[in-house]
Amino acid sequence: MNNNLFDEFNPVSTQQWKQKIQFDLKGANYNDALIWKSNEGINIKPFYNSDDVIETSNTSNTKASQWKICQTIFVSNVEKSNTKALEAINKGTESIKFIIPSENTSIEKLTQNINISTTQLYFETQFLSEKFIQKIHKQIPNAKTLTDTIGQLAKTGNWYSSLKNDMLRFEAAIKTSSYFSVNTSLYQNAGANITQQLAYALAHANEYLNTLENSGNNLQSINAIFNISVGTNYFFEIAKLKALRLLWNTLATQYSANSNCHIIATPTKRNKTLYDYNTNMLRTTTECMSAILGGANTINNLPYDSIYHKNNEFGERIARNQLLVLKHESYFDKVNNPSDGSYYIESLTQQLSENALELFKNIENNGGFLNQLKQGTIQRKIKESALKEQQQFNSGEKVLLGTNKHPNANDKMKNELERYPFVKTNPRKTLIEPIIEHRLSEQSEQNRLQNEN
User: What end-to-end distance do the CA atoms of the chain give, in Å?
Assistant: First the structure.
């Protein structure tokens, strides 16, 4: 069949659509009735067509069919962590992320009997040691080590040692691993809007590229890994991941660096709730779907009970099974880049990219990311964004089902807490003000806990 299926239909212009909508509104104002503004300052229209897209982003150089299911394991005991990893792989996990708190950890014992040719392994250390990273790559040449010294400063307020020493050790580690990582999740979980998340990720990465270029490194051989938290604004989050690839491509091109990046996506903690906790499963499901359609390489689900329960087999199994259902029963691994060409998503991608690039340029014009962290500008901007979102939650404009809308008064959680689910205070001396992750429902949950019988 040579004829296009839609050739017999006349095209409908934007103006014709708007006239029809205005007629159906029966006198109501089109802009007031149907256009709303996101926290990123983007006006969302009731319909999109080709007039809204200058050109399609064409950024999905990854294939949606190739995303990998990941499980994170905190290594408090090497033997138990190895057993847990093997069980997870046997039950469908395709990659493992180990969080390692100690340099004394035996990589050989930790990875014993794991088929490293079929299972991708990630290693995130809670310390900075080029020798330990060398040990990892000697044992597992294709390992991906997540080294993020600026992320340490942003999260804790302090370097591992000092700016000079950390950057020297960072460079030595990169020469072995060829990977650096950017913890963008921190900004999302602390309340940054999507434009800020993208701009801060880019400025954060730019500090590393600057350092590595000035030391004469071959940037084509160095790979960027972005740890991203995915929120519940479904289409915006798809566009966020696509915009990140666009922005990274733009930045890397300026340095003649490797323009591909690896994205590890995890559902956000910010909208997770203590009460009506099963709703967290619905949230993480849509967030994982956004990550898949946005082109994440690796997806690491968050157990529904992770904010108040210690790691447990049931919660982790449910989280893993959510991804298995998406991949093997919902066919989210059958179509490559299904979001490409959507006028709405392409328009969002363009606007988020442009807004984030503008903010990135502002950061660079004011001394760069590290300088703005030291001045407290980044922290202040995130707090402003978080406060705006918190006010929307408190007023009911932003809804978390079961918490600020349709709460179940019979829910009791006081005796279920194995973890402290709120922001922890740990007074200490820091070089800068740390960026603090904070859930929207914390204050209302604390009030409910106090009032439980």
Answer: 71
* Residue 158 predicted with pLDDT over 90: yes
Q: Which residues, including other chains, have CB under 8 Å from residue 450's CB and lie 6 or more apart?
A: none
Query: Which H/E stretch holds residue 188?
Result: helix 185-190
CA distance 450 to 422: 14
Residue 85 phi, psi dihedral angles, 5° rounding: -65, -45
- pTM listed for this prediction: 0.95
Q: Please check whether residue 399 is in contact with residue 273, taking contact to mean a CB–CB distance below 8 angstroms.
A: no
Q: Token pair of 138, please?
A: 């000697």
Q: Which position has the higher pLDDT, 453 or 217?
A: 217
| Helical axes 343-365 vs 194-214, angle rounded to 10° | 50
Alpha-carbon distance of 176 to 366, in angstroms, equals 33
Percent of the chain with pLDDT over 90: 83
The single residue listed with the structure tokens 């559902």 is 267
184 neighbors 229 (Cβ within 8 angstroms): yes
Amino acid code (one letter) for 292: I
Contact status, residue 238 vs residue 352, Cβ threshold 8 Å: no
* Dist. CA 133–CA 144, nearest whole Å: 10
Distance in angstroms (rounded) separating the CA atoms of residues 360 and 356: 6
Of 145, 284, 347, give the one whose Cα is nearest residue 227: 145
3-state secondary structure at position 97: strand
Whole-angstrom CA distances from 350 to 194, 251, 324 are 13, 16, 32
Instruction: Give the lowest-confidence range in 41-50, 132-141, 365-374, 385-394.
Output: 41-50
| Rounded-to-integer distance, Cα 267 and Cα 307, Å | 13
- Note whether 226 and 258 are within 8 A (CB): no
In Å, how far are 277, 316, 331, 419 from 274, measured between CA atoms?
5, 17, 31, 11
Residue in the block written with tokens 């969080």: 99
HSE value, Cβ hemisphere, 13 Å, CA-based, for 394: 8
Specify the range with the lowest mean pLDDT, choosing from 175-189, 195-209, 327-341, 375-389: 327-341
Query: What's the CA dihedral at 9, 14, 18, 19 to 10 degrees?
Result: -60
76-84 contact pairs (CB < 8 A, 24+): 76/101, 78/105, 78/106, 78/109, 78/110, 79/109, 81/110, 82/109, 82/110, 82/111, 82/112, 82/113, 82/114
Axis crossing angle, helix 234-255 with helix 194-214, rounded to the nearest 10: 20
Which position has the token pair 């020493």? Answer: 165
